[in-house]
Amino acid sequence: MINYYRSLKSDFIKLRRQPMLLVHLLIPLVGIGIFLAYFAYTPYSQASKVEGYMQALAAAFPTMIGIVCAIAADQESAAGQYQQFLTLPSRLVPLASKLSLLLLLGLGSVLLASAGFGAGFIYILNQSPYGLGFYVIAALILFGSSILLYALHFFVSLRFGKGASIGLGIVGSLTAALLLTGLGDQNWIYIPCAWAARLVTIWAQYGPSGAGSAPAALLLQQGILLCGVGTAAFMVLLGLWFRRWEGRKSLE
Q1: Where are the domains of the chain?
Q2: Are 29 and 116 in contact (CB under 8 A)?
Q3: 135 by DSSP, 3-state: which?
Q4: Enclosing H/E stretch for 198
Q5: Could you tell me the pLDDT band of residue 252, with boundaries at 50, 70 and 90?
Q6: Residue 200 class from Cβ within 10 Å (0-12 exposed, 13-18 middle, 19+ buried)?
Q7: pLDDT tens digits, 129-168
Q8: Contact call for residues 58 and 196 (beta carbons, < 8 A)
């Protein structure tokens, strides 16, 4: 544990030389401003505005994850061809540290994007049909259902390079948006990039009245089960792969 905390502290220090903090801060703030300005003049119902914003946020999340994971992996490459990953006694310590950093930044960013929008919708536009707690829970749903994507994109960044991670993120965002339509009604539970968009939509539609009221056809329970099992299984596979990884330079 001592090595883990030291590695995590080192990763936080490295943030001073990286744009990741700005990415996690500025993108949510810009998104909040754009959507609040748009919703101030649109005639849609208040609930529809909230649902639309949450869906847009969920669809954009894979691209953002792809970008930040690419930045993190590229920084380790530039700092000495991943030597920090390879020199500690336990190979899993730097991996756990880097993923922890990415997840903490992601959690803060999605909380800002969701709760910040909620605060603006409540106190500036005076339109929100929900309290601030609704937006906090929505942020936690978005984050929890996207943990696997962080591990996946970090693996892709290490193995194939930053271009592959960003490209996969863009494809993931497009896929998430597409699977919000009828095409994803029976298939979304098998597609990780669609988990966040579908789960937060169900929360927006049925959460205020109780998740138990969601129709069985929405596959809520199956989606939560596959999300949890899939995330845990991929974390194990990533750890097994990383222990054998030789640290060769990623292909661009």
Answers
A1: 18-244
A2: yes
A3: helix
A4: helix 192-206
A5: very low
A6: buried
A7: 899 999 999 999 999 999 999 999 999 998 888 899 999 9
A8: yes
